[in-house]
Each structure stands twice: as C-alpha cells, then as structure tokens.
Amino acid sequence: MKSPDLPLVAFRLDGQDMQAVQGETILQAARRAGVDIPHLCWSEGLRPDGNCRACVVEVAGERVLAPSCCRAVTAGMDVRARSERALRSQRMVLELLLADMPERGYKWNDAAGQGGSGSALVDTDTIAGGSPAAPADAATAVPAADAATGQHGELSAWAARLSVQPRPALRALERPQPAPDFSHPAMAVQLDACIQCTRCVRACREEQVNDVIGFAGRGADSRIVFDLEDVMGESTCVACGECVQACPTGALAPKTLVGSQQVDREVASVCPFCGVGCQLTYKVRGETIVAVEGRDGPANHGRLCVKGRFGFDYAHHPHRLTTPLIRKPGVPKDAEVLRDPARWSEVFREASWDEALDFAAGRLKQLRETHGPKSLAGFGSAKGTNEEAYLFQKLVRTGFGSNNVDHCTRLCHASSVAALLEGVGSGAVSNPVADVADAELVLVIGSNPTSNHPVAATWMKNAARRGTKIVLADPRVTDIGRHAWRTLQFRADTDVALLNAMIHTVIAEGLADEAFIAARASNFEALKEAVAGFSPEAMEAVCGVPAATIREVARAFATARSAMILWGMGVSQHVHGTDNARCLIALCAVAGQIGKPGSGLHPLRGQNNVQGASDAGLIPMMLPNYQRVDDARAHAWFESFWGTRLDPTPGYTVVEIMDKALAPEGDPHKVRGMYIAGENPAMSDPDLHHARAALAALEHLVVQDIFMTETAWLADVVLPATAWPEKTGTVTNTDRIVQLGRKAVEPPGDARPDLWLVQQMAARLGLDWRYEGADAGVAAVYEEMRQAMQGAIGGIRWERLEREGSVTYPCLSEDDPGQPIVFTERFPTPDGRLRLVPAQLVPANERPDAEFPLVLITGRQLEHWHTGSMTRRSAVLDAIEPVATASVNGAELARLGLAPGQMVSLQSRRGAVQCRLRRDDGTPDGAVFMPFAYAEAAANLLTNAALDPFGKIPEFKYCAVRISP
C-alpha cells in the first residue's frame, strides 16, 4: 500500500466521499475504507494483473467496467462497487469459475461448523479483503458463514458472500482436466482447480525471481507449466512455496493439507532458521504444526524459503528427547558419535528431573570448588532466544565464576565483529538488507545468499531487475551470479589482494570522498601508504581477476549514488578474516558509502539469533551490549547490577576451550567440566577428531538439547529441552530487529523450557534468582536484559514487543521508532570517527601441495542448516537433499577421471570422509565445495583449526585435500 505521506486524492465510492493516497488503486482505497470487492488474481505484494475480472466496478461516465485492482484512483472519480451492473458482472465471473472447479469431496475451511479458528490453506485474511500477511485479528472480518464455504478457498468464499451457485447447465462447459502432479516432496499440483489468475507466476518470477513457473499455450490450451512442462518434482523449483501461498483455489497446495483443511489455531512467530528473521504463522492441529505461512514482517513481507515453509516438522520427529538421561556406569565416552538415536538406552538410563539436575549441577559445582572457576566453561546457542542467551552467560559468569562462555558466532562472524568494533565501534550492521532497493551498486562478497539467506536474496534479485548493479565477488560463482552486473571470481585466500586493489584504485584515481574522510575517518594516510603497492595490475596475478575489471568495479562503487556491501562467512572464516573485514570497512569509508540509505556494511548473520546472542553477552570477552569484561567501568557496573564479584579477564573461546580440555594434568588452566545448551561442537568445530576427543576427555559434560546430537553422545547428563515452536521469547535478526516469537505447541513428553533449565542449574550452583511469570519468567528476564543494554534496546519494553511484534535497535526511548540506518552523523567510537586499519597479505595456514592438491571450501546449502540436527529431521528437506555431496567443476572431474554421482573419499591431513560427487561448474579449478550438515560425512573432520589472531575464528574456508575413488 502506498505511503500515507503522499498527496491525497478525493473521490466518491458508492455514494460516499473518500480519499485515496495518490497512486493507489480503487481496490486498495476501497479496502482501506472497509469496502470489500471480490478479487482473485490480486494479492498484496504482487503486481496487479487484472485478468480474472472478479473485481470490476462501475466508473461514472465510462462505457465499460473497470478492473479495480489495476485502475488508479483519479481526482473526482465516482466509483460504484456495489451497483447492480457491477455486482451482476462480479457474480457472473465467480459463477463461471466455480462451475469449472472439480468436486474434491472435502471442505477447504469447515471451521465455522466445528468450532475451529481458521483455515490452514485458505487465508481468511485474504478472503476478508486483507493480505495473506495481515494481522491475525483481521480474520474476525470474515463472517462465519463465509469461512465454511466449500472446497476452493478464496473462490468458494467470495462465491458464498455474493450468494453465487453455479447453474448445473454450466457443467456442460467443463474443460478436460489435467492429471494431478504429486511428484514434489512438499507440494501437490492439481491444476484442475486452476483459474489461471497467474498469481503463482508472478510470485515465482517477479517476487521470488526463481523463474520456474510459466504460462504456456493460448486460449483454451493456456496452462500453467514448470520449466519446459516438467513435473514439479523434476523442475528447478527451489520449494520456497510462494506459489502455494499465492494460489487462491488450492491448485497448488502443501501436501500436509491435501484433505481436511481444518486447524485449531494459528500462532504468529518468527522463523527458527537463518538470520533474516522472517515472520511466519504456524497453523496447528492438535499439538502438531501442519503448515506455515509467511507474515508481513519487516524482513520478509510475507516471503519464506523452503526451510521456513516446509522445515517445521523437525519439532515432531520421533528422535525428540523427552526425559532426562544419565550415562550408565562403565560406558566409555568414545568418539563414535554416529549412533542410532533410538538406541540411546545402550549408553544412558532415564532419570527424574531432580536426580538429573542435582547430578548435572552438583558435579560442576564440585569441579569449580576443587579446581577453580576456570576449570568450567559453557557453550550457549544462537538458535534460542535472547533471554536464554542472556541468562546462560550470566550463569557462567556468576555461577561458574569465569568468562569461559561462547557460542557459534566464534565459528561464523567473530572476525567481522572484531573488525567492526575496532573500526566503527559497533558489531552490528549499518543498514538493513532491504536497503539494497535504494542502492545503485551492491557488492556481495563471500556469501551465497540464495542458499544461505534466500529471502534476503529475493530483495537483491528484485533490485537487480530494477537496475541495481550486483557485483558478486567469490571464489565460487553461485546462483546470485545470474543476476550480477559483474562477477569477480577471485582465487580462494586472496580477498585482501582484491580488496586492497579496489581501495588503491579509488584513492589513486582521485575518487575518494575527501570530505567524508576529513570529517569522519582517521588513519587515512597510513591506509593510503599501505595500499600503494596494491595496484590492480600487480594484484591481477595474485587474485586472478583482470586488472581492468577490478578498476571498473572500484570506479562504479566509488561513483555510485549509494553502494552497499553484504558479506558472509566466505570473508570471515580465514586466518585473515579480520583483515578481510578491515578492507571492506576501508573500501566503504574511502568512497563515503556509509551512513546513508542504500549504503554501508552488512555481515549477513547465519543463525536465527546469532546477532541477539552476541548482543546479550554470549561471548568470552564481552559483557552484554559489547562492553569489554576488562573495562573497569563496565566491570564495576555489572558487579553492582548482578550483586556479585566477576572475573575481570576475558575467557577462552570455542577452539581454545577444546584445547584446554586436552591440557595435561597439572595445567592450572585445564577445562574439566562443560555445560552445552543447544550447540553441537562435535559437528560444528574444526578438526572434529580433536574436538570430539576434547569433549570425551571432560570429567563432566552436561548437554541440553532437543535431539541426541553428536555432542550429546559424549555427555554425562542429557537434559531434554524445547524446540523453537514450543517457546516464547525474543530474537534479533541480521537487520538489528528485535522480534517476538510465540509458543505454538506444547513440548513432547517431559521436555522442559530452556529458560527453566538454566534457572534450575543456577539454583543448584547457589544462585538466588527470582524470575516470576509464564514460560519461566521470560518477560522478567527480558526486562533485566533491557536494563543491561540500555544503549541498544532501552526503549523496547516487553509490552511494546507484545503490541508491535518487532522493533529495530538502537531504540533508546519509548517513542523512538528505532533506527534502521546508523552512523548517519557519527560513529560510536571514542572520537566519533571511523578508524581505517590497513591490511597486508597473510596466506592461509595450510596450502595445497602434491599430496593434497585441492582446496576445500565448506558452507551451507539451501535445504540444510548448520549441523543438520534440525533440517535432516525434516521429511521434506531431507527428501530434497538426502545425501552428502562434494562439488567440483566439470574440468576438475575430467582431470581426476571421476564422474558425477560416484562415491569418493575426500581426505585431508586430519581425516577422511566418503560422499558422492556433484558437478558444479561455479566451483573454481583446484577446489572442492562441501556442506557441513551431514553427520555421516562430516566436512569438519577435514577442516583446519588454525585461528585468526584477532577474531579467534577457525579457518573453515581453506584447507588442503585430495579426492580418490
């Protein structure tokens, strides 16, 4: 809908004086005024097409009826939506369409007659004239009679509202019906119910820009097709399900809802997967989630990806932990973690909650008292809530007595955060992803957004279609390259060479923003001197990108009205990851591309709450809101706030904790006990043989999780926790938006909320905490966290989140709307200036040689996420990508004498895995790409634990390997 800040246009609607926003259509203006006009081909967010003609209205003085969905309001227009002529035409269209519908033998929404609360497929918000992403209370606008009107969704509902029943004679006009297509794991295609409204085509091609669904034929032969008339399951469909959400008749539907469409309730929440933070609605029948739809959240505006829409059933998997477990006496902790989760009783016995918690906390307490506070450590999770992260780090700091607490940010963006804190004084993004719409140029580097952040990628693809120049810089040419203006396929490990060459070009060619540098940056002369030897001509041989292309892209970046950089773990997961991010900061600064719309720095967060967990202090050198533990002022404030003495020295990071667990007896820094909540280091850490040996060496390991993960097999105590749809709490997405997720279903068996478990452990460690309220006092914990983070979320009270659902920080007062774009006037550094930090070439810790001639690059894939503990237990996701693969290009396959689909052994100096080969010509020569979500072929058995000296992040993105049959 158009912005209310635009001029208003006066017109008349059904005899009443109205005002429309300039540019608004008749349908949009009518909806705002509460006037319902039937519509089928129109949907909020999609380009109006005007092809179904269900929405026609009469305009005074005009001979023909006008489609209200694509006719703009003009001053003085007199519209009659309910005139006899308009209603007769609307009814005729609905009757003809309904007469052509097949008889399914079930109702699309029988809630009214059976006490249900809504439809699982037919969106009652849309029926009411709202969008599929309208607030939940919009469903009250639908009369009960209309909510139970038959088999074909919006079409049936509108027909009921206008009292339309197809005459039997019209059945003689019924066309031959296409056969159903059930070839896709997630979606059913029943085009006998298709009205050819093209909403699915527009959703696929224009909104998601996946270009799978098309329209073929003419006249009576016109039809919806997938690619070259393939069945859906064999097409290039990426299963985002946008077509399902757009379809008004159920011609495209989720397989989980073929049949009865009744649901008991719909619950607004947030997606539990990547850092984009898509808002969604869970549709619940009994205590089972049966479907998911996108909501109009600030990050997604109704869009979802395959994981968000179809990956929900992991919560109901039979592998869920439902009772506390204690390791049986005499069962050794071996590194064989590939066990059948159903056979847990071979290693563990069931225990009561009191027994399990007493044993879990009691042994940790004993180790603390015997060996000191630093003998304990904790890993929290970025997959949980902000409240859980805050309370977990508080437990470690006040209960264990040290700062030995970390989480997966150490393994993804620690180097980015280190560089950002050093350079701009903040570890968060400067601009939201959607700001690409205001950018003239977008540099995507070290990121595969269509796989890792699919909904964010749609905004990039939309921007490219409108003329934004996308530059992809990556050793791999990924799907976003199809939309790129220029592709910089640089050699792996040469990020600094490429970026310094771009900075050199901006400075040497007089394109630097001298006014910005003079007013808002420091250390420019040192940077200028450092990049003097990095001309594109000198770096071409190093990074493999032609000098002319480097210069062309650097000029375009510097001279663009606004330019933005988005990066992923391809930048951060190197021993020079901090240097890579320093170069990105410098490139933005010398070009003056920060502090304004469509510009700035955005490290794309990998997990749903890695930003929030970091903000909340779940890192060893930072208290909440990135206040250093060795800063005397911050240290004193938190000692007073928490009422206890705190360790003033930074703790150990993830990889350092593993090293300390293997330290010899007598080492005063040896880690002996750990509490791990929601992390899976036995899959996510580098050099897994080393990591698993470290976990097995611990004297006491407590694991809190929803599944028997690879890490849980090495535990002494396993505490069954709650999955994301089973809890209420806040998360913070990659855009700095704090969002409220709501509990949709009850946990299975005797599983308990994570927040309750942390508090139970705290009580047994001697902490006197009082957090009263539902879900273990989540609101009370949030309010304490808010006080500790006044400089970020001070203005976001719990009541405001319950009311608004999401607020962007920094938000410093109750009336502050939040600040999506920061650094507009100053940087949060001591002098208010951005600090430029030069970087030199630092090679990878391990290089290919004759024995191991290939470079291994690890990462994620679209269908699976992180260590796979959740997505590998989703039926749809695992059906689409069921086996581990390693990807090499066609030329490399020929050189190796191997074929796609062949089983191979992939070996490094640390281990070996077996998997199938996949051809991917975007993977460069001399390299192999492998996702790390497959326990049976764990890529991190191969990776190198060498650390970046600043961010302490492992070098996941570069190690030497070989492939053999």
Structure notes:
The strands form twelve sheets. A seven-stranded mixed β-sheet has the order 16-15-29-28-27-17-18, sandwiched between helices. The radius of gyration is 29 Å and the shape is globular. β1 and β2 form a beta hairpin. By secondary structure, it is an alpha/beta fold. The termini are far apart. The longest helix is centred in the middle third of the chain and has 19 residues.
Looking at this protein, list some descriptive labels.
single chain; 965 residues; alpha/beta; seven-stranded mixed beta sheet; six-stranded mixed beta sheet; 31 helices
Structural class: alpha/beta
Strand content: 15-25%
Poorly predicted ranges: 106-149
Radius of gyration computed on alpha carbons: 29 Å
Envelope shape: globular
> Can you give the helix content as a percent range?
25-40%
Number of strands: 41
